[in-house]
Amino acid sequence: MVLTSSLASFGRYCMFMRRVFAIPDKWGIFLRRTVQEIIKLGVDSIPLVIVISIFIGAVIAIQMQLNISSPLIPAYSVGLATRDIVLLEFSNSILCLILAGKVGSNIASEIGTMRVTEQIDALEIMGVNSANYLVLPKIVAFLIFMPVLVVFCITTALFGGYFVALFTDIITVSRYVYGLQALFQEWYVWYGLIKSLFFAFIISSVAAYFGYYVKGGALDVGKQSTNAVVSSSILILLFDVLLTKLLLQ
Length: 249
Description:
- The protein is mainly alpha-helical and 249 residues long.
- Helix content is 84%, strand content 0%.
- It is elongated and about 70 Å long.
């Protein structure tokens, strides 16, 4: 029964995506809405990303130093480990799990509210492809701005570790900075950016799908928003494993 329901949901999702990725009727309106969604979904997320990244970067640096205290391990390993953890996992996977709660619930609740208030039905009556009109700008906007959020996350997280070295005696600044530079692999940056694009599509499309097919009232909008966040998080973790295997083998 669960398998049948899951297959039915996946089929409806694919049909929904087919409607979403139709050619926009009016490119001017599409571009204007995309810019608005970039501001709402991307720019407004920058403060959250900066605050979380600074503290996580600081915590990673502290924990690395406390757990790498052997004289056989180079002192610069703290900076190196902090950098690689941020590049490989935190700046893409963990960040997107956090954004699934903020951006995903925002998209699902907004579209779900339009559904229960019959605004989507009004668009359909006017002959507008409502899925394309409402959802495509959100997906495109989040895909465009996601790399920017990843760069902000990487930068501020590394600065978080730098502040630990600067304002405490846990590790010296010179050793931390040397560790950030040591054995650097450019592919790790591209790896994080590629993963973030997949996750951005999952967050925006899954949230839009759950919001678009809401049935009932305001309570059901809240339930579907929660379902959207949970489903997005599970899919992000699943694709995290798959993409790690494909990109780092």
